[in-house]
Amino acid sequence: MNKPMIKVSNELTGSGWMTNGRKLRRGVTRREFIAVASATLASVAVRGQTSLNLLASDRHRPRFHLMPPSAWLNDPNGPLYWKGHYHLFYQYSPVISNTGTKYWAHAVSTDLVHWENLGIALVPTPMGADKNGCWSGSAVIHNGVPTLVYTGGTWSAESERAEREKGIIPERQMVAVAAAPTDPYLRKWIKVPENPVLTAPPTGMKAVGWRDPSLWKEGDTWYMVIGSGEVGKGGMMLLYTSTDLRKFTYQHPLAIAELDPKSQDLSKPFTWMWECPEFFFLDGKPVLLVARGNEYLTGTYSEHRFQQEFKAQIDCGQVAYAQKTMEDQKGRRIWWAWLREKRSAKAQVEAGWAGVMSLPRILTFRKDGTLGVEPVPELTALRREYKKISNRSIEPNGPLLLKGFASDCAEIAVEIDPGDAQEIGLHVRSTADGSEQMLIGFNREKQTLFSDTRNSSKDPETRELPRFFGNLSLQEGSLKLDKGEPLKLRVYVDASVIEIFANGKVSLSDRVYPSRADSTGIGLFAKSGTARLKSLTLWEMSPISPDRMTSGAELFQL
Ligand code: FRU
């Protein structure tokens, strides 16, 4: 959990949200924030069943992405394969706010595509070490028993900031085990009596945070990293060992961030913290992931220390956050992230929901030593009827939209030869006159993949965006195309969620909230030159539930 100074203020400044005639600003306390958010949420909730119907017909709510029936989702937690089912947990809050009390919600799937929400798996224990939230963590199988290792939030709304400033860390590490490991649904979890299994960061360390455990096994020993960091030093992954997942011994930092003052604002405390660390071996090579920037680090691993050699991004947008992976029963490294909202806190509360789980993606090592990222092939099961066009020139003054190609629930696969154009790409979620549209493209000179949502909505609540780390309406990341290599995009359009995969090399997730229901058009563009469309295929996608994932609401009742 970020400190309120960072997340609360970032989400609220800029949102334009008024309370008692006063704009919330930096310095708002959690208590004030939660009080206002809950009050507004309650007004949505009193509409009872109607509100669920409203959610089910909300055209911004995705149809083939996992999310809770209502309220708040953030980080993916504890992915695990058990008895024929993929289990995926996620941070859930009944209040639409990242500072709300967090629970572990639980969903299962047999194919990584169709998900069933099973409700709440972990609830904060009153007076317990997780009394203020069951925060992010991981799942492993220990001696045949599915086991969750997570962070307990012990802060209180009144004192957290003061305590953190004094160096008191309101985080504890916790363990829960499956009550009935024979149950393929793993519906019940029991917290172990040894909790909290770790009570404080290593002695002498002035940690700015200490959370989000992630585990792997070497021989009979469990290795666990906890995200942490120190002001002036950088983000760190602290390494612990255990043989029984009850007693843990601190070893040393597995890795420390290499700071880059050019791209990092060292005045921000968050610079010094690595949230949601992941460490795993892919093709026998060590890989380290951190939440910020959806970064991955490759390098060397010796004597349980990781030395960074290379750094890049799995998703180069700022909407995806808190990446989490698992190795599945087929030996594939599957990746998920939380897709954040890009509209005001007020709009989120009014909608009655916020936060979506990304589609599952596969990470692989490419020949050049970088990581490749692609959607899992299972997603093709959702493809329905399709339309295809091929071999056309894309002129700089060409038509805005493709006739007959329109959808807000689709997968689009497109291959474009850049020709002599400087920028090429797609319009999606566009009106016929282009007054609302999103651009997805490649800039040849800069060698970047970009997404441009500056004109994607006339709704003012999407203008003053909740800010995370920068400009969210124009996002880009490195995409290097070899000479003669066409741009190959796979784009998933699911209402307000857009997930882009480029040449198997990088991904970019974004959100759009067009004000008009007819903002569904799709088109091609080329700038400063002519490009050639090799082919474009659009598949309509099947929803994964008949009601935009709103069923099972009763399982989320607290
Ligand atoms: C990342 C994070 C984690 C924390 C969780 C709480 O988004 O702040 O560090 O465990 O969210 O919901």
Concise structural overview:
It contains five helices and 35 strands. It has 558 residues and is mostly beta strands. The site of beta-D-fructofuranose has 16 residues, from strand 3, strand 7, strand 11 and strand 19.
What would you note in describing this structure?
- With 558 residues, the protein is mostly beta strands.
- Helices cover 8% and strands 44% of the residues.
- The protein is built from 5 helices and 35 strands.
- It has helices at 4-12, 30-45, 49-56, 160-165, 345-351, and strands at 18-19, 22-23, 71-82, 85-93, 103-109, 116-122, 134-142, 145-153, 171-178, 189-191, 207-218, 221-230, 234-242, 249-256, 278-282, 285-290, 295-302, 305-313, 320-327, 333-339, 353-354, 356-357, 361-365, 371-375, 383-394, 409-417, 423-430, 438-443, 448-452, 474-478, 487-494, 497-502, 506-511, 521-527, 531-541.
- The strands form 8 sheets. Strands 25-35-26-31-32-33 form a 6-stranded antiparallel beta sheet, with no helix packed on it. A 5-stranded mixed beta sheet has the order 6-5-4-3-21. Strands 19, 20, 22, 23 and 24 form a 5-stranded antiparallel beta sheet that branches.
- A hairpin with a 2-residue loop joins strand 17 and strand 18 (305-313).
- The radius of gyration is 23 Å and the shape is globular.
- Bound molecules: beta-D-fructofuranose.
- The site of beta-D-fructofuranose has 16 residues, from strand 3, strand 7, strand 11 and strand 19.
